[in-house]
C-alpha cells in the first residue's frame, strides 16, 4: 500500500453510518429565529434601516412566516429530517 493510500484510507465509521440512530432536530420557534436575524442586522444597519427591517420581519412573522412555520412543524412530525426538502416530495 502506498503512502497516499495509507493517509487517506479510514477504517472508522462512514459519515452517515449512524444517522438513523440520531435524534431529530427540533424546529426552532419562529420568533427566536427572527430575533436572531434582527440581532445580526442591528450590527450593520443604521437606525432607520433597522426600523424598516424590523417592520418587515414582524409583518413576515404575522403573515407568511407563520404559515411556513406551520408547514415546517407538520413536516417535522412526519419526517426524521425535516431540513432537507425534496422538491418532489414536500
Residue-averaged pLDDT = 86
Q: Describe the global form.
A: flat
> What's the helical proportion of residues?
55-70%
Q: How do the SSEs run, as a string of H and E?
A: HHHH
Low-confidence residue ranges = none
State the end-to-end distance.
Answer: 46 Å
Percent of residues in beta strands: under 5%
Number of DSSP strand runs: 0
**Quick one: biggest sheet?**
none
User: How many helices does DSSP assign?
Assistant: 4
Structural class: mainly alpha
Radius of gyration: 21 Å
Short précis:
With 90 residues, this protein is mainly alpha-helical.
Please describe what this structure looks like.
- With 90 residues, this protein is mainly alpha-helical.
- The chain has a domain at 27-76.
- The protein has four helices and no strands.
- Helix 2 runs antiparallel to helix 3 (47-62).
- The longest helix has 16 residues, at 47-62.
- The protein is flat.
How is the topology of this model organized?
Blueprint: H1 3-8, H2 30-42, H3 47-62, H4 64-78
Helix pairs in contact: 2-3
Which key phrases capture this entry?
single chain, 90 residues, mainly alpha, 4 helices, 56% helix, flat
Amino acid at each position: 500500500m502506498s503512502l497516499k493510500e495509507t493517509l487517506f484510507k479510514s477504517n472508522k465509521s462512514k459519515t452517515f453510518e449512524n444517522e438513523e440512530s440520531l435524534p431529530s432536530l427540533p424546529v426552532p420557534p419562529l420568533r427566536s429565529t427572527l430575533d436572531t436575524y434582527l440581532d445580526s442586522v442591528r450590527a450593520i444597519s443604521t437606525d432607520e434601516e433597522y426600523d424598516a427591517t424590523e417592520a418587515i420581519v414582524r409583518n413576515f412573522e404575522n403573515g407568511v412566516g407563520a404559515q411556513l412555520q406551520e408547514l415546517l412543524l407538520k413536516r417535522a412530525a412526519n419526517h426524521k429530517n425535516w431540513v432537507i426538502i425534496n422538491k418532489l416530495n414536500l
